[in-house]
Structure formats: C-alpha cells, structure tokens
Amino acid sequence: MPHAQTMIREILIAAVEKRLMGNRQFGFMLSGGLDSSLIASIATKFLKQVIIFS
C-alpha cells in the first residue's frame, strides 16, 4: 500500500478506536454509504458485540 493510503487507514482506525473507549454498548445506523459501513466494520474489531441498523 502506498504511504498515504497506509497513513489514512491508520488514522481512521485510531479515530474509531478512540471514540469506542469506555464500558458502553454501541449501535450503528448504516446509511448505505461507504463511510458508515467502513466505521462499523472497523468497530467490530474492537467491540465484543455490535448492534447495526440499516
């Protein structure tokens, strides 16, 4: 992966992980766009259970 793509990926993953901190449940509403699906996909790597609405 080119350097810029790697940096964007790492920054996005870190941003999602930072917002998932704490002992709370999270739900995601998928709008059909790429951004909400991408964020929900990254979140599944950090959460035990993910609630998704579409």
From TrEMBL:
The keyword Nucleotide-binding applies. One of its GO terms (cellular component) is cytosol. Pathway: Amino-acid biosynthesis; L-asparagine biosynthesis; L-asparagine from L-aspartate (L-Gln route): step 1/1. Pfam families: Asn_synthase. Residues 8-54 form the Asparagine synthetase domain. GO terms for molecular function: asparagine synthase (glutamine-hydrolyzing) activity; ATP binding. It comes from the Eukaryota. GO terms for biological process: asparagine biosynthetic process. Keywords: ATP-binding, Nucleotide-binding. InterPro entries: Asn_synthase (IPR001962), Asn_Synthetase (IPR050795), Rossmann-like_a/b/a_fold (IPR014729). This is Asparagine synthetase domain-containing protein. It comes from Cylicostephanus goldi. The lineage of its organism: Eukaryota, Metazoa, Ecdysozoa, Nematoda, Chromadorea.
